[in-house]
Amino acid sequence: MSDLLRVENLNAGYGAIHVLFDVDLQCDQGEAVAIVGPNGSGKTTFLNSIFRLADIFSGSVILEGSEIQRERSHKVTSRGVGYLRQEGNVFPGLSVEENLRMGAFNLPKDEVKERIEEVLSLVKPVGPFLRRTAGTLSGGEREMVALAVALMCRPKLLLLDEPTSGLSPIAAAQIAELIKNLKDKTRLSMLIIEQNLKILFDVVDKCYLLVSGRIIFSGKPEELQSDKELMKTYLGLA
Amino acid sequence: MSGQWFLFSVDLLALFGIYLALNLSLRLQLGYTGIANFGLVLAFTGGAYVGGWLPIRLGMWLVEVDPSLAEDMIWNNVIIASQVDLSLHGAPGTAMTILLITLLAAGAAGALLGLLSGYPAVRLGGDYLAISLLAFGEVLAIIGNNYDPVVGGPLGVRIPDVWAWAGDWRFMAASLANCALAFGVWLYLDSIEKSPMGRMLRAIRDNPDAASSLGKNVAKIRLNVMVTGGIICGLAGAMYTLYTTGVAPSALSRFDWTFLPWVMVVFGGSGSNVGVLIGTFVFILVQKLIISYKFALSFLPFDPVWLQFLLMGLVLVIVLNFRPSGLVTEKASYALSRREMAKATGKETL
Amino acid sequence: MIMASFIDALTYSALLGLMGFGLTLIRRTTGVWNVAHGEVVTIGSYVALTATSFLAHSPYFHLPVAFIVCSAVSGIIFLVGVEPIRAKGASSILLLVVTIAISLILIAVINIYADYLQNVFHLSSKNFLYARLDFTLWGQMGILWAAWAALAVLTVSYYLMLQHTRLGLALRALAEQPTLAVVMGADVKSLSFLAWCLAGGAAGLAGCLFPMRFQCHPGIGTSMIATMFAVSIFGGIEKMYGPLLAGLVLGFAQIYGIDLLSSLVGPGVIPFKDLIPMIVLLLTLQFLPEGLSGFVGRRRG
User: Fold this and answer.
1) Is residue B337 assigned to a domain?
2) Smallest CA–CA separation between C36 and chain B, in Å?
3) pLDDT per residue over A113-153, tens digit each?
4) Least confident of C29-33, C88-92, C202-206
């Protein structure tokens, strides 16, 4: 089997609040998978539950053949999962370089420097502001830094939670370009939540439509796009 | 009922009334508005100082006492107090006048202290507010312990007994009066519970930013609540002093009048009046029992009073672990009654 | 007279700095105001009492023991008391209440221990002072040098650790965005545990040094907790040198300043020296909410 991540019958939420119901999802090696759906459908909760930042009630999360749903949150990173969160995705008081170092918290110490250079070659725009304090960057710059930070841990799987939300169209296009680049250059698998479907559709290989905590569609992006009914009802696109 | 048990119960009742009033004040601040007031002792002490300072002077003015004694109120304190006591025995009217004026002044002092401690603090968030109030709570103790004219320094003063006219029923009358205070506060909170004001306070507690975007002046409302809370604490402090007929700054500790109320309220549940009542009763009972059985525990190589600290700390840790919202949890309150709601929605049941 | 109080002020500031230091570290890394910190200081004093009574020597020899014992106590407070409740997502207020509960337990334990020492070993465990055991160096009591050395060593080494090690980086990251730190693979629980231990150790040193110059009793730390909070808030929790700065200002204001004031207005003001930290706290909250170090940092840009 070439699947990197397989999620089976996942039921998750926060405390007494049940958000996800029997979610199944699969992401193969080198594949980019998009999760789309209206606000409040549980997309972020899904990513959080891979990191056990949400409570998992039942079901399993299988990464490279081993279950990780009982792993403590900070251990998931060392299994090769990077996570770009939608909010609070950099340490505002630390310099960009310190942010990157923190991203490499699980790498052996002598590899950190080398990895920073590798990541900088993948996310070139971050280079000039290594010395700046992350909190002083603009939204777009910060998002790039956050992406670079998420790449620091040498992930096999990268979780991206709305990487272009709240950015200007130019910055959003830049981020999309970077993501496309990443996909072409590395064998990185990605799980992307994105509102900006136009940017998304030519990057991803597979789409899941999540509505009210349940998967109601899965398949190729073209198939989703051709289903006018689904597009209109849940994504507001004709 | 034997005399000893009668006294035990009456004293229990008296303390229960005082603490219930104090704890309901905390419930108003914490439970309704989310103000973690760790400085309850401040307004309570203020009220107690008023109770220590004012009645004896009012007494001297209202009844006949040798005026030369007034030259040193602290030195002659006991003589004056007992002379006033003698006159008050047959004069319930005078005694009640003293009581009323003292309560008014204590309420005012409590309000002032609530305002003073609240003013710099209300704009702060959660735990910063709590810590600042905790620190401010020490201020009156420092003053009272070191500045004799207030209430005679660390050893304190004796004050006239405004309940003396009740004779043998003196303790009973004072205890009932304490409970009446608590009951009054209870009614006040109850009236808030279902009012728009109660909903506004809870809104501020749950999301100050949203409340302020709806045009509510959050800082001002919080300050109002702290002033109201201060009044209640001040009244409780004065009633306590009048009940014990004495006040000593060293006895008005952070433990007894801030931490203990917190333990009771957190144990019972800050979201419910009934919870606060249960919490108060349980802990007063335990405290009284430990003190009563102190001598039975004299074989221990330490003072059994520390067992009370140990017990309270442990109970609190356990409650916070397993039932952080307390024994009785908050119920959602509805603006409309069931029937009105049914009418409005067109459904029979909710 | 003024010279003696100058030395007192210097010593007292260093000890205040040490105490406030732990509060600041804990608050910075785990977001908890630890009310039980006062009792950890007291435990340091009782380590000094116990070791000095049973093993003789000067309390200075027992500083490492005090550091270790108080680190352990503080670490246990975190693991047993704070962490289980924090893991359930408790608010900062609830965490504060937990530390109050623990402080009550520790008050009981300390007093029971003091009673026990007094009743069984007939030690004067409720009031002790070891000034007579102190040495002199360059014409001054050893405690002055020791207190400042301890504060300097701690501040510098903690500063170096925070700025230049991976662990320090993680602690700072934790203080800023705990969830993000977790996502990057930092174990919040162990890091917080470490911070609590380091904080407890600093408090232990302060407690162990305290009886060299000042009278100690079972309530010593408890009675100083409000002052410690004043030091921590006044210093500002953003920078590690905040408590050092604030300890200095408050210590001087409390001892040296009050002497100066009493020579101006009369000795009547001396008993009110404990009000000074409260007044400073009040002014801080009103005019300098991010504290001294925040203010200095802001001025610099």
Assistant:
1) no
2) 11
3) 888 888 888 887 888 888 888 888 888 888 888 888 888 88
4) C88-92
C199–chain B nearest CA distance, Å: 18
Residues 6 or more apart whose Cβ sits within 8 Å of residue C300? none
Using DSSP, state whether B306 is helix, strand or coil.
Answer: helix
- pLDDT given at position C73: 95
ipTM attached to this prediction: 0.83
Closest residue of chain B to C96, computed from CA coordinates: B127
Determine the distance in angstroms separating the CA of A180 from the nearest CA of chain C, rounded to an integer.
Answer: 23
What count of Cα atoms within 13 Å lies in the side-chain half-sphere of residue C147?
Answer: 32
Total domains, chain B: 1
- Residue C42: per-residue pLDDT: 94
Q: Does A98 lie at the interface with C, CB-CB under 8 angstroms?
A: yes
The reply to whether B313 falls in a domain is: no
Topology classification of domain C2-127+137-292: ABC transporter involved in vitamin B12 uptake, BtuC (1.10.3470)
Nearest to C184 among A53, A88, A102 (CB): A102
> Is the Cβ of B263 closer than 8 Å to some Cβ of chain C?
yes
Residue B333 has a pLDDT of 62
As a whole number, mean pLDDT of residues A6-14 equals 87
Contacts of C90 in chain A (CB under 8 A): none
SS (H, E, C) chain C: CHHHHHHHHHHHHHHHHHHHHHHHHHHHHHCCCCCCHHHHHHHHHHHHHHHHHHHCCCHHHHHHHHHHHHHHHHHHHHHHHHHHHHHCCCCHHHHHHHHHHHHHHHHHHHHHHHHHHHHHHCCCCCCECCHHHCCEECCEEHHHHHHHHHHHHHHHHHHHHHHHCHHHHHHHHHHHCHHHHHHCCCCHHHHHHHHHHHHHHHHHHHHHHHHHCCCECCCHHHHHHHHHHHHHHHHCCCCCCHHHHHHHHHHHHHHHHHHHHHHHHCHHHHHHHHHHHHHHHHHHHHHCCCHHHHHHHHHHC
A103·C187 Cβ contact <8 A: no
User: Which one, of A226, A227, A176, A206, lies nearest residue A26 by Cα?
Assistant: A206
Comparing C-alpha atoms, which of C58, C97, C78 is closest to residue C188? C78
Chain B / chain C CB contacts < 8 angstroms? 132
User: Could C108 and B131 be called an inter-chain contact, meaning their C-beta atoms sit closer than 8 Å?
Assistant: no
From A162's Cα to the closest Cα of chain C, the distance in A is 16
The answer to whether C187 contacts chain A (CB < 8 Å) is: yes
Per-residue confidence at C74, pLDDT binned at 50, 70, 90?
A: very high
In a domain, B317, yes or no: no
A to C CB pairs, distance under 8 Å: 69
In a domain, B290, yes or no: no
Can you give the pLDDT at residue A228? 76
pLDDT in tens, B34-90: 888 888 999 999 999 998 888 888 888 887 777 777 777 777 777 788 888 777 787
Nearest residue, CB atoms, C111 vs list B128, B306, B324? B306
For C149-187, write each residue's pLDDT tens digit: 877 788 788 888 888 888 888 888 887 788 888 888 888
Read off the pLDDT of residues B157-188 as tens digits, 9 standing for 90 and up.
888 888 888 778 888 888 999 999 999 999 99
CB contact under 8 A, A105 and C176: no
- CATH architecture observed for domain A1-73+158-163+188-238: 3-Layer(aba) Sandwich (3.40)
Q: Do C184 and A153 touch (CB under 8 A)?
A: yes
A86 φ/ψ angles, rounded to the nearest 5 degrees: -70, -40
B94 touches chain C (CB under 8 A): no
Candidate from B139, B310, B321 with C-beta closest to C108 = B310
Q: Which residues pair with C136 in a beta bridge?
A: C141
